[in-house]
Amino acid sequence: MAAAAALIALDWGTTSLRAYLLGAGGAVLASAEHPLGILQVKDGDFALTFRRVTGTWRADNPALPALAAGMIGSRQGWREAPYVECPAGLDEVARGVLKIAGDNLGIVPGMSTIDADGVPDVMRGEETQILGAFADGRSAIAVLPGTHSKWVLVENGRIRRFATFMTGEAFAALAGHTILGRLFEGEGFDAAGFARGVGHAALEPKGRGGLLHRLFSARTLGLFGKVPSQALRSYLSGMLIGSEIEEAAAWLGGKPGAVTVIGGASLSAAYHAALKQRGIAAEVAPADAASRGLMRIARSAGLV
After folding, report:
1. Residue 163: beta bridge partners?
2. pTM reported for the whole predicted model
3. Residue 278 in contact with residue 202, Cβ under 8 Å?
């Protein structure tokens, strides 16, 4: 296996580190996941963490190249890899790869854009997943759900523009640190509660109030027994994801006909259900989008 290896690919985020050993054709020969996101690395010793994680794979080939994407290239990470401005694609991202001397490691740059109000927006890691999911050069609209959900307009395989929605972080804060979570029972997913939340977010706002008003329904519907306590968590999730979809449609200039969801299994399933409920066709991208993107960037940057 070691002899066939061509690249160590790292998806190194805020909370976790996913490592892949890739063959010359991009096949995943081995993989591992570690709770070693940039916030969990003791004393910020990323070099030591990198060597420990990759040591076994490099035992027979110390010169095996490595490429990392995600928050490891942020200001809080190992070294800051400057942002590439949109619109951009594979060539621009590959040219921006930051080399770490002594470790035969490259770090993928993030991407930046400017919205209609002149406010900058940024992402790190999602650009790599986009380049992996749309290697065929097609045009599409993609959503990458998570703590900071990203909606991306892809044109001919290149990232034209994107927008961030703090859906995941808002859910965690509201459920864990406000009165809304006091009536919640259990952590399970309730499909009916989720669908009701998505539907409530989609109501025409005239005379009804927007999200700040509707959020309180996650408490009052529980107080009056209209939504079971076991379904309230899913109701809040549905309302936030539904609100994200409505805002993203406005950002796009109209409801999209189809969306590609790129992310973990549970979140992708939730977004797929919410999009379908709103009459938007949805497909879930392959789970290996990150490793595919890392291999494409490594080839373009001349690492393999």
Report:
1. 151
2. 0.94
3. yes
Q: Which two tokens stand for residue 115?
A: 């919205």
Residue 285 gets which letter from DSSP? P
pLDDT, one tens digit per residue, over 29-68 is: 999 999 999 999 999 999 999 999 999 999 988 999 999 9
pLDDT at 259 over 60: yes
The reported pLDDT for the residue numbered 101 is 86
Exposure of 62 by Cβ count < 10 A (0-12 exposed, 13-18 middle, 19+ buried)?
A: exposed
Q: Could you give the dihedral angle defined by the CA atoms of residues 59, 61, 62 and 68, in that order, rounded to the nearest 10 degrees?
A: -100
The CA distance from 258 to 274, in Å, is 13
Structure tokens at 8: 């160590």
Domains assigned to the chain: 2-136+291-300 (3.30.420.300), 167-284 (3.30.420.310)
User: What does the alpha-carbon distance between residue 64 and residue 62 come to, in Å, rounded to a whole number?
Assistant: 6
* Tokens linked to 194: 């989720």
